[in-house]
Amino acid sequence: MKLLKLGIAASLMLAAAPAFADESVTIKTILEKGAKLSVMGMEFDLAYKPDGTYADPSGMGGKYRVDGKKLCLTPDALGQELCSEYPDDKKSGDSFEIQSDFGPILITIK
User: Fold this and answer.
1) Residue 107: which residues within 8 A CB-CB, separation 6 or more?
2) H or E element: which one contains 22?
3) On the CB side of 82, how many CA atoms lie within 13 Å of its CA?
4) What is the residue extent of each domain of the chain?
5) What DSSP designation does 77 have?
6) 27 exposed, middle or buried (CB, 10 Å; 0-12, 13-18, 19+)?
7) CATH number listed for the domain at residues 23-109
8) Which of 50, 65, 79, 107 gives a 20 to 30 Å CA spacing to 26?
9) pLDDT digit string (tens) for 32-55?
């Protein structure tokens, strides 16, 4: 019986392995801590909620979803989803640049 339980647990872990490999540490950290974005001379201080929404203190907000190593934002004001690939293994305090439809975006993880 003990061997059967161990086999089932190992099978479940192997089945979940591809999902873990696709998750970005950077995106997980951003969703937990928030991030400051600088784009086209404007700054945004985004906080992400577990319900799939995000907001800036200025009132700007929208929805988000994660697609592997991409974070996709749909700003309420735009109504169009914008997805960008994020580098992996970034942590709180790190800054990095991504490319977007609006040009480069500087992101600083809180």
Assistant:
1) 30, 35, 36, 37, 38, 86, 95, 96, 97, 98
2) helix 2-22
3) 15
4) 23-109
5) T
6) buried
7) 2.40.128
8) 79
9) 999 999 999 999 999 999 999 999
